[in-house]
Amino acid sequence: MNINWNEIFGITVSPLELVVRGTAIYFFLFIIFRVLIKRRVGSIGMADILILVIVADAAQNGMAGDYRSVSEAFILIGTIICWNQFLDWLSFHVPQLKSVLEPAPLLLINKGQILWRNMQKEYMTESELLSKLREHEITDLKEIEKAYMESDGQITVLKKKP
C-alpha cells in the first residue's frame, strides 16, 4: 500500500485563487442566508437541512475549482471561517452594520391580537405561532402584551401585568 503524501497535502491550485473563490462564494451565500432568508421560526427542519446540503454541494465546485489535497481544503475552509468571524466582529463593533445585516424584531402579537400582515411576512402559520406560545406556557392570547419574532427566529413574549 503506497501513500502519495504529495497528493494528500500538496497544493495544486494557487492559494490566492482558493481565497478569492472562497470569498466570492461566502459573500454570495451570506447575502442569501442573512439578508434574503433572514430568519425562521427558531428551529431547523428537514427542508432546511436539505437546502443546506444542496447549497453546499452546489457551491463546492465554484469554490474549489480542481483542488484535490487536504491542504487546499484547509485554505478554503479557513477563508470561509475567517470571513464569518470578521463579519461577526465588524457587526459587533459597528452597530449600524448590525442593523443592516440582521432584521429588527418583528411584532407578531400586540395586546392579545395577532398581527396577520407581519405573520405573512415571515410565512408563519397560526399553528406555528401557537406552538411557540405553548413553549412559553401561554394558552390564551389575552395573556400577551406583545410577542416578537427575533432576528434568530426565536419568539419573545411579554406578558400583560396582572
From TrEMBL:
One GO cellular component term: plasma membrane
Domain annotation YetF C-terminal: ranges: 94-161
Domain of life: Bacteria
Gene3D superfamilies given in the database record: bsu07140 like domains
Location(s) in or outside the cell: Cell membrane
Topology relative to the membrane: Multi-pass membrane protein
Entry keyword Membrane: yes
Key words, A-Z: Cell membrane, Membrane, Transmembrane, Transmembrane helix
Alphabetized InterPro entries for the sequence: DUF421, UPF0702_alpha/beta_dom_sf
Membrane-spanning parts: 18-37
Pfam families reported for this sequence: DUF421
PANTHER family, per the entry: UPF0702 TRANSMEMBRANE PROTEIN YCAP
Family classification: Belongs to the UPF0702 family.
Protein name: YetF C-terminal domain-containing protein
